[in-house]
């Protein structure tokens, strides 16, 4: 149980008064590391330098037991939760993909045909390995599918037009979700090798972007390789460079060095994103943005969100327990230090509120778990129709494939038209199909949406997480939860070493680190939730929380009443 709401509210009001009495910092820097499990800072701490994570640990509050509380721990879901302070049931981003019943196609979360890219070609399907990107039916992008305000929006509302708001990422969904509706988002186009945006934000690129492109940052990686950055014996996984479950992506391989190839290789920019280079390029662009837009240069707070995606891509290909993941962490620490050093030079870290978290964690590969005696497996949804229970359903209901319209992880969508035409009760069909799914090896729960609507689901940690994910307009008819340590490993022919998206702890556990003026260093071990992040930023600044916010401010990261210093004790 969480702290009594009334007591927490009273404490929050007292702290809010103290926060407002303190001058707002000129810059809020929100960093989101994609697929960054909460234990990795401690696990790979031997690689920390002085200026990256170490700065945040030494000067801020480390919430070491933070979790997402929604069931579907995918990129857009976690990013938007961090941005809005609420559950996907309310902010609406229930999955990277959901099925559009009207159009009869899958729907990519931030796609929007009304706002095409500005002077850019969009996704190159022949070279794009992200299956969610390939599923988009338009190259247009916007944040309009986010149903509530974000903390970036609230900063713009509270401080007015003088407040500058930006989001930057390799991934469009990483930049757009964090920039919100009021900001400007830039993301990396792999098809063009540069950062782009859409007409939702601007009609033409500012001159500084052309200047950044002219520097040749991206082209500078041509003909180079991702080399191991230290001697193998200094790594936990220094003798495990070639594990059989790692993805052997053509031209990249599963052992060091990993070649990026030449600039004319159609996979050149993709390979950059599959390595620490993706984060290095993102931070280089963000530094130019800070300078060109003059962030943090006056008394009105500005907001910059930087989403770093390389950990996610490296994790998918090699798994979190790999030499590649470990070296990527070491390089991420140096890249973070590079960004913070630039902020310190231009604005001052003592005048910047820094918030770092992650959109989700990651599971271990079943092959690695097997070496430790832990049973695990991968699931193939294509084989469901051949299972005896579903063969029986075909005989009972007609043709099973006609009843099951689509599976977009984690939701199964039923053919409502076919069900109605046959005079079947949809809720009963959901129940029968869910019962058969739960009989299959690897599936822990199959929860019908009709039961969620009617409040007929037994309450528990997993059921509550599924309910937090349920949006009646976008969620499917049955939510599928795989057994612990099980996941779908094949994505349109690309077999991956790790795939997140479950409500289990390895996917829900993420770090939260907050440093800034008036915040005393602490390590907090009590369980907190990612819905608390956006309200914490808002209260710190004296702004109102986002419109759908459900979280409570993290009091350890706010100025304490009376002395202007943050609490330094952990519960």
Automatic annotation (TrEMBL):
InterPro entries, A to Z: Alkaline_phosphatase_core_sf (IPR017850), Alkaline_phosphatase_prok (IPR026263), Phosphodiest/P_Trfase (IPR002591)
Keyword terms: Metal-binding, Phosphoprotein, Signal
Name this protein carries in UniProt: Alkaline phosphatase family protein
Presence of the UniProt keyword Metal-binding in the record: yes
Top-level taxon of origin: Bacteria
Pfam family, one: Phosphodiest
Source organism: Albidovulum salinarum
Keyword Phosphoprotein: yes
Signal sequence region: 1-21
């Amino acid at each position: 149980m969480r702290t009594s709401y009334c007591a927490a509210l009273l404490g929050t009001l007292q702290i809010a008064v103290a926060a407002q009495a303190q001058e707002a910092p000129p810059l809020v820097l929100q960093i989101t590391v994609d697929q960054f499990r909460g234990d990795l800072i401690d696990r790979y701490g031997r690689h920390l330098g002085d200026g990256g994570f170490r700065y945040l640990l030494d000067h801020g509050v480390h919430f070491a037991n933070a979790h997402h509380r929604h069931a579907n721990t995918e990129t857009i879901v976690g990013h938007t939760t961090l941005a809005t302070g609420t559950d996907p049931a309310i902010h609406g981003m229930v999955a990277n993909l959901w099925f559009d019943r009207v159009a009869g196609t899958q729907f990519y979360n931030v796609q929007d045909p009304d706002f095409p890219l500005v002077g850019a070609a969009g996704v190159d399907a022949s070279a794009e390995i992200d299956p969610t990107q390939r599923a988009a039916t338009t190259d247009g992008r916007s944040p309009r599918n986010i149903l509530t305000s974000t903390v970036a929006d609230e900063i713009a509302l509270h401080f007015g037009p003088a407040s500058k708001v930006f989001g930057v990422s390799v991934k469009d969904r990483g930049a757009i979700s964090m920039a919100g509706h009021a900001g400007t988002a830039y993301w990396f186009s792999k098809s063009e090798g540069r950062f782009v945006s859409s007409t939702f934000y601007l009609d033409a690129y500012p001159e500084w972007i052309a200047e950044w492109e002219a520097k040749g940052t991206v082209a500078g990686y041509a003909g180079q390789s991702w080399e191991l950055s230290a001697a193998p014996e200094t790594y936990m996984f220094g003798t495990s460079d070639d594990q059989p479950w790692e993805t052997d992506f053509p031209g990249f391989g599963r052992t060091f060095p990993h070649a990026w190839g030449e600039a004319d290789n159609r996979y050149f920019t993709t390979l950059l994103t599959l390595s620490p280079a993706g984060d290095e390029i993102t931070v280089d662009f963000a530094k130019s943005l800070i300078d060109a837009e003059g962030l943090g240069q006056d008394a009105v707070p500005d907001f910059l969100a930087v989403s770093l995606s390389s950990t996610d891509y490296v994790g998918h290909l090699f798994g979190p327990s790999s030499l590649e993941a470990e070296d990527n962490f070491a390089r991420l620490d140096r890249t973070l230090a590079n960004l913070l050093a630039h902020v310190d030079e231009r604005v001052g870290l003592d005048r910047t509120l820094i918030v770092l978290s992650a959109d989700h964690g990651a599971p271990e590969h079943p092959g690695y778990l097997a070496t430790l005696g832990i049973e695990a497996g991968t699931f193939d949804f294509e084989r469901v129709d051949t299972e005896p229970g579903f063969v029986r359903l075909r005989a009972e209901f007609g043709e099973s494939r006609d009843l099951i319209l689509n599976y977009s992880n984690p939701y199964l969508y039923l053919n409502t038209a076919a069900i109605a035409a046959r005079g079947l009760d949809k809720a009963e069909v959901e129940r029968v199909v869910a019962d058969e799914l739960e009989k299959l090896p690897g599936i822990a729960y199959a929860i019908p949406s009709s039961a969620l609507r009617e409040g007929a689901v037994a309450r528990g940690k997993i059921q509550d997480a599924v309910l937090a994910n349920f949006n009646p307009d976008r969620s499917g008819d049955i939510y599928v939860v795989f057994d612990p340590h099980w996941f779908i490993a094949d994505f349109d022919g690309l077999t991956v070493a790790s795939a997140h998206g479950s409500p289990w702890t390895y996917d829900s556990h993420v770090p939260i680190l907050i440093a800034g003026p008036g915040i005393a260093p602490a390590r907090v071990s009590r369980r907190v939730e990612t819905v608390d992040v956006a309200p914490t930023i808002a209260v710190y600044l004296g702004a109102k929380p986002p419109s759908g916010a459900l979280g409570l401010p993290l009091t350890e990261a706010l100025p304490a009443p009376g002395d202007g210093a943050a609490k330094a004790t952990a519960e």
